[in-house]
Design goal:
Layout: H1 3-7, H2 30-33, E1 38-41, E2 46-52, E3 76-82, E4 86-93, H3 112-140, E5 142-147, E6 154-159, H4 160-164, E7 172-176, H5 192-207, E8 214-219, H6 221-229, H7 231-237, H8 243-247, E9 254-257, E10 260-264, E11 268-269, E12 272-273, E13 279-285, E14 291-295, E15 312-317, E16 323-330, E17 332-336, E18 343-349
Parallel strand pairs: 1-14, 7-18, 8-10
Antiparallel strand pairs: 2-3, 4-16, 5-6, 8-13, 9-10, 11-12, 13-18, 14-17, 15-16
Amino acid sequence: MNLAQLLTNPLFSVFSLTAAINKLPYMPGLIGGLNLFTPNPLATTVVLIEANDNTLALIPAQPRGAPADINVEGGRELVPFIVPHFPLRDTVMADSILGVRAFGTDNQLEAINQVIGARVASMGRKEDVTQEWLRLGAIKGTIITAVDRETGAPKSSIDLFSAFGVSAQPVQNWPIILTPPITEADAWGGPIRALCLSVQRAIATELGGQGFSGVVGICGATFFDAVATSPETRQTFLNTPQAASLRDSTYGSAFVYGGIRFLEYMGGVGNLAFVADDEAHFFPIGVPDLFVEAYAPADYIETVNTLALPRYAKQEIMDFDKGVMIETQMNVLPLCTRPRTLITAKAVAGT
């Protein structure tokens, strides 16, 4: 390709570049950043979770000398889950890089290994956002493993409540004004601290004697703004170091109130919103093995009966060296082992 052809190449409208800037979309990654999930690499495609129903019970009084009441231990069972398979494939044809300048340079031809590396990185970002979506599903109690590309409607899912044989906690309605702007006079229709305590009590009840170090709420924008800007919250933070978190921009930030750490969740993919604007999802932290993440091996000959890795990537030369096929895959299942500790709240119009 000569200079004139390069200048008119539709792939590159500007020949001389002073800087190469690769603009990547925002990658939702809040859940991954919390480090909630304990990794559990498997050598099979099935993970077994042991459910032990040890519950407290009152001992009935008996007349002296009467037979003692029989102690009954809680039931134990194994709950199986099949680790879902998430493969992704791409092809780099030899003709597709013929005479193409390397990105960010003036005169170098792009080598095929650079293209393959860029494609693998791009595929890895899709796996990152998929894993984040699965982890968020484990926090909600329903892990959606496939959605419609156009509408975002669920196509397949794993219901943790059904799997463990329990019912979901009822959705809590938090009375707030949904129509912006939220003013000091009418931002909140009920006491926030009491609502926060109700969430913590429900979680503590489900955990029984198991302690926990705190509660986190993953919030949509409307829910987060209502709590952050309410008169009750603002009055509490006045003349404290945390006042800066409310005085400054709260977009994508966090604050603690009523014993709960509120985090605004940003991001989604296409028509799929990761967290609804008017919802919040609460869960405890500091509970051993509450959140686990199982990995299964890839379906390659060389990975049979080996401990799984979080990600796999492989390439294969096409017939007659006309290109390279690339495949990446992950086989992962994040789980919440006690799903009744998960509580969803929904913003409703206050009175």
